[in-house]
């Protein structure tokens, strides 16, 4: 069955209006831990967080071993928003006199509907400097999954994430260097959730009636580990294992009121996030000094989530491959292109010194095979860095 995704601005407005920090889960009894992360339209523009990439403040999302080579940078704040789904269909739905029926029609026409919104910030404070980096982030998530008229789920929630990493060069010669890195993380997440028929979930969505929904509180801490090999100034190869060990502790509540009162409906559940082992390379193409327009050019390639092959149901291996490039023009404009999960990614960035603006559009795959459940994603980021 094909699923599509959609623009979440209305949903995020609901969250803000209610003052609820939120992500949701379809059903608390079947709740699966949500991996914490930070959004970056820059990384999305060329296919994601590449394993061997030193990416300034975004190195906190790539490989802790790359912290051994970062230059000093402060992040003061960031708004990074991603909308996913049938983005160009939803405006007409929300303009309809009967939003619920218009959405049901969209579900019928497309044999299902899936849309989500993800906002990192405005809290995105931190620093990276040679060897060291830390960051504090908040993230808001909204997901509506309506595979059929008979079943749907709504997820809404908020995440608070703290990261701290250290990368160290352990061996160095004239031609190559080896570095290792570790990154610790701590997080807590608050979720509200509903599952049931498409009619009931859509009515909850359109009426903004979240008060009586089951709630979930997840807390966890974790460890990422990485390795980098650098040859001269051009070639870098890396290995990273994100969530090498990340336990998550979850408490369930019958409603938001019970959550605020601290009245849990069950004992604390324990689970672990699945490790993500990835390998990759980055090559920085030498740019002659006489070139005044092109000031930087790199190409990257990754093979991601290698351990997923041991899952009972694993995705087609080609979906784990990514390749991308970034071209810097006069140290101000960046043009990006990539291929991720068999879909194109494209982006552009503008460095205005005090702030950085990034935009990206890319495809992703929800299914186990290429082309089974494609999703369109649009990302925009406004970052204030020093």
Structure notes:
This protein has 386 residues and is mostly beta strands. It has one domain: Porin. The chain has 6 helices and 17 strands. The chain has helices spanning 9-18, 41-45, 90-95, 99-109, 198-207, 256-261, and strands spanning 22-23, 73-84, 113-129, 132-146, 152-172, 176-196, 215-231, 235-245, 247-253, 269-272, 276-284, 294-303, 321-329, 333-340, 343-351, 355-365, 374-385. A 14-stranded antiparallel β-barrel has the order 2-3-4-5-6-7-8-11-12-13-14-15-16-17. Strand 16 and strand 17 form a beta hairpin. The protein starts with 8 loop residues before the first helix and ends with a strand.
Q: SS-based structural class?
A: mainly beta
| Sheet with the most strands: spatial strand order | 2-3-4-5-6-7-8-11-12-13-14-15-16-17
Mean pLDDT: 88
**How many β-strand runs?**
17
Ends apart, CA distance between termini: 47 Å
Biggest sheet overview: 14 strands, antiparallel, barrel
Order of helices and strands: HEHEHHEEEEHEEEHEEEEEEEE
Provide tags for this entry.
386 residues, mainly beta, Porin, 6 helices, 51% strand
Write the layout of secondary structure elements.
Elements: H1 9-18, E1 22-23, H2 41-45, E2 73-84, H3 90-95, H4 99-109, E3 113-129, E4 132-146, E5 152-172, E6 176-196, H5 198-207, E7 215-231, E8 235-245, E9 247-253, H6 256-261, E10 269-272, E11 276-284, E12 294-303, E13 321-329, E14 333-340, E15 343-351, E16 355-365, E17 374-385
Antiparallel strand pairs: 1-5, 2-3, 2-17, 3-4, 4-5, 5-6, 6-7, 7-8, 7-9, 8-11, 9-10, 11-12, 12-13, 13-14, 14-15, 15-16, 16-17
Helix pairs in contact: 4-5
């Amino acid at each position: 069955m094909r699923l599509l995704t959609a623009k979440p601005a209305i949903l995020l407005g609901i969250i803000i209006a209610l003052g609820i920090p939120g992500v949701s889960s379809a059903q608390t009894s079947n709740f699966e831990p949500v991996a914490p992360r930070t959004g970056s339209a820059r990384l999305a523009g060329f296919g994601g967080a590449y394993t061997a990439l030193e990416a300034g403040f975004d190195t906190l999302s790539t490989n802790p071993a790359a912290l051994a080579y970062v230059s000093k940078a402060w992040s003061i704040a960031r708004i990074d928003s991603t909308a996913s789904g049938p983005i160009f269909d939803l405006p007409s739905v929300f303009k309809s006199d009967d939003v619920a029926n218009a959405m049901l029609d969209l579900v019928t026409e497309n044999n299902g509907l899936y849309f989500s919104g993800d906002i990192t910030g405005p809290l995105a404070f931190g620093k990276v400097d040679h060897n060291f980096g830390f960051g504090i982030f908040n993230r808001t998530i909204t997901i509506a999954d309506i595979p059929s008229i008979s079943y749907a789920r709504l997820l809404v929630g908020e995440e608070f994430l703290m990261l701290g990493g250290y990368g160290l060069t352990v061996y160095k010669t004239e031609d190559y260097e080896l570095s290792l890195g570790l990154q610790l993380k701590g997080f807590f997440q608050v979720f509200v959730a509903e599952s049931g028929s498409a009619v009931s979930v859509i009515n909850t969505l359109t009426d903004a009636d979240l008060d009586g929904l089951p709630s979930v509180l997840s807390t966890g801490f974790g460890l990422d580990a990485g390795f980098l090999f650098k040859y001269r100034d051009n070639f870098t190869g890396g290995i990273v294992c994100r969530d090498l060990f990340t336990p998550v502790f979850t408490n369930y509540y019958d409603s938001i009121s019970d959550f605020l009162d601290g009245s849990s409906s069950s004992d604390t559940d324990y689970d672990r996030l699945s490790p993500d082992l990835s390998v990759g390379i980055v090559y920085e193409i030498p740019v002659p000094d006489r070139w005044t327009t092109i000031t930087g050019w790199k190409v990257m390639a990754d093979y991601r989530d290698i351990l997923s092959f041991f899952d009972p149901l694993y995705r087609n291996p080609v979906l784990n491959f990514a390749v991308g490039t970034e071209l810097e023009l006069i140290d101000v404009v960046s043009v990006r292109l990539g291929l991720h999960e068999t879909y194109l990614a494209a982006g552009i960035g503008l460095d205005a010194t005090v702030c950085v603006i990034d935009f990206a559009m890319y495809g992703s795959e929800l299914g186990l095979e290429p082309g089974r459940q494609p999703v369109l994603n649009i990302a925009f980021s406004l970052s204030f860095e020093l």
